[in-house]
């Protein structure tokens, strides 16, 4: 019986030791843990990731919620804020075209889409024309209300979009709120940039693209624009009023009413035997009620007598035609034009008053229809310009100062600096504007013929360019000009950009 307690004690000892034995056995079979360094994300990587989430979320928010429908006068419009590298304001007036205003510099652009004309409100204006007197104030109030509304909704959309995308990507409320806060800070910074760079006078220099026949009505009158600075709301209202007229219930485009205090000059150059140019010039004369057409040469390509018949449509353009010879125009061409009615050929510094302005000009001293470069060509151009400058000085001394000088090449034009307020030229087939050291403005026109057959030499056709110059009838000084650019061969685009002289 003495062995029983001894066996029990042995079993009890083994049971007591079994956890330690199992632990040793488990540790023996389990591999020892190893220490490893886990690479943490770089702060710049996290910052770039957050920035990507914020920008993408803000953009998605603007796309989903950022549209605001605003009634502006008799029209229904949609205002939208869109990301943009250049900023500004774009007014889409379908189907007539679009107006672009350089209103601010910020990564946000305001899009205003004219959706439709409300027939009830439009008919009310037709039935009660006395309401037109208060239309500008009504439009200004509607635009202000719509702008505030789109700004508030866009702010909510940007913050909500960034927060929602942050929550979906990070799945942490704190990171999502950080994304929303960052989006709000960026939006406030954009707002500050808009406020700091806001240019209310941008409406005075709109860029129009669309139907050429609608350009005069949409862009407006030069005299009204020049004399009405610092009236942004009224100008915007006038712009919308013009659009309202375009959407008249009678479906007729309004006639352009030229300001009687302005002289409108159409500047063309380098037609190069393009027969389409005459129809374009005739259309511009009719649309803008042009008083004088000035042509700074290279109307022909080879200057041969066989080409003279190309010039016959000039007699039916509806305005006096002032012309100087280019390096592709021969003396044969010049004599043919001198015999035409309503054509005024200027050469050797000859001056003539036409349509209320005094013009003087000289023909190009070179005749290079094969585009060759003669020895001493630069010197001959400068000499021709110097002779014109002497003639301009003589006119000034005689009490009959010249308002506009005309040459073909820019190198000759530079020689008349200080003798005339404005000198016009062409030759280089692209538009340019420059104030010379002594104060003369040099205006260079592009090719109104789209470079003629040379348009086929390049991958893209050259545009057809011309300008409408507005002169004050009393001072005979340049007030503004519209640069007109039409798509080249086979294209149908049109752009009209208003420019004002500095100061």
Can you walk through the features of this model?
This protein has 503 residues and is of the alpha/beta class. It has two domains: 44-215, no CATH class; 262-499, 4-Layer Sandwich (Purple Acid Phosphatase, chain A, domain 2). Helix content is 38%, strand content 21%. The protein contains twelve helices and 19 strands. It has helices at residues 3-29, 43-65, 119-127, 135-170, 173-197, 215-219, 222-226, 232-246, 276-288, 331-338, 377-397, 410-413; strands spanning 67-72, 75-83, 89-93, 97-101, 108-117, 207-210, 262-268, 292-295, 321-323, 343-345, 350-354, 357-361, 404-406, 422-425, 432-435, 441-444, 464-472, 478-486, 494-499. Strands 1-2-5-3-4-6-19-18-17-7-8-9-10 form a 13-stranded mixed sheet. The radius of gyration is 36 Å and the shape is elongated. The N and C termini lie far apart (128 Å). Mean pLDDT is 80; it is low at 228-232 and 248-255.
In short:
With 503 residues, the protein is α/β, with parallel strands linked by helices. Helix content is 38%, strand content 21%.
């Amino acid at each position: 019986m003495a062995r029983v307690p001894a066996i029990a004690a042995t079993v009890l000892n083994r049971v007591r030791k079994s956890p330690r034995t199992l632990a040793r056995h488990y540790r023996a079979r389990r591999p020892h843990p190893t220490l490893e360094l886990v690479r943490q994300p770089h702060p710049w990587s996290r910052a770039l990731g957050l920035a990507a989430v914020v920008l993408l979320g803000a953009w998605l928010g603007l796309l989903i919620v950022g549209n605001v429908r605003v009634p502006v006068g008799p029209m229904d419009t949609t205002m939208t804020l869109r990301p943009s590298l250049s900023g500004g304001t774009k007014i889409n007036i379908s189907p007539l075209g679009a107006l672009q205003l350089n209103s601010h510099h910020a990564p946000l652009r305001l899009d205003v889409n004219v959706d439709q004309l409300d027939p009830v409100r439009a008919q009310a204006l037709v039935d009660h024309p006395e309401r037109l007197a208060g239309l500008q104030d009504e439009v200004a109030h509607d635009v202000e209300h719509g702008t505030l509304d789109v700004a508030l909704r866009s702010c909510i959309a940007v913050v909500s979009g960034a927060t929602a995308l942050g929550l979906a990507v990070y799945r942490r409320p704190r990171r999502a709120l950080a994304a929303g806060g960052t989006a709000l800070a960026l939006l406030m910074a954009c707002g500050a940039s808009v406020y700091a760079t806001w240019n209310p006078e941008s409406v005075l220099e709109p860029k129009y693209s669309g139907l050429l026949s609608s350009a005069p009505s949409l862009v407006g009158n030069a005299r009204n624009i020049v004399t009405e600075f610092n009236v942004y709301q009224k100008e915007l209202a006038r712009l919308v009023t013009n659009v309202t007229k375009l959407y008249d219930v009678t479906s007729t485009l309004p006639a352009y009413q030229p300001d009687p205090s302005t002289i409108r000059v159409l500047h063309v150059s380098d037609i190069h035997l393009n027969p389409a140019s005459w129809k374009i010039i005739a259309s511009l004369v009719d649309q803008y009620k042009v008083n004088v057409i000035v042509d700074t040469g290279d109307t022909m390509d080879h200057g041969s007598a066989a080409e003279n018949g190309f010039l016959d449509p000039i007699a039916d353009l509806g305005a006096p035609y002032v012309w100087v010879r280019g390096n592709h125009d021969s003396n044969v061409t010049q004599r043919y034009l001198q015999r035409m009615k309503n054509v005024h050929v200027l050469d050797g510094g000859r001056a003539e008053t036409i349509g209320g302005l005094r013009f003087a000009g000289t023909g190009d001293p070179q005749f290079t229809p094969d585009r060759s470069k003669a020895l001493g060509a630069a010197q001959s151009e400068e000499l021709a310009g110097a002779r014109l400058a002497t003639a301009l000085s003589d006119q000034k001394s005689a009490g009959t100062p010249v308002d506009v000088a005309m040459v073909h090449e820019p190198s000759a034009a530079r020689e008349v600096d200080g003798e005339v307020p404005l000198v016009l030229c062409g030759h280089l087939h692209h538009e340019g504007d420059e104030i010379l050291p002594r104060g003369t403005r040099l205006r260079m026109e592009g090719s109104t013929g789209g470079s003629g057959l040379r348009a086929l030499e390049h991958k893209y056709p050259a545009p057809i360019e011309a300008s409408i110059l507005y002169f004050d009838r009393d001072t005979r000084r340049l007030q503004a000009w519209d640069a007109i650019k039409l798509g080249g061969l086979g294209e149908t685009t049109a752009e009209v950009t208003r420019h004002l002289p500095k100061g």
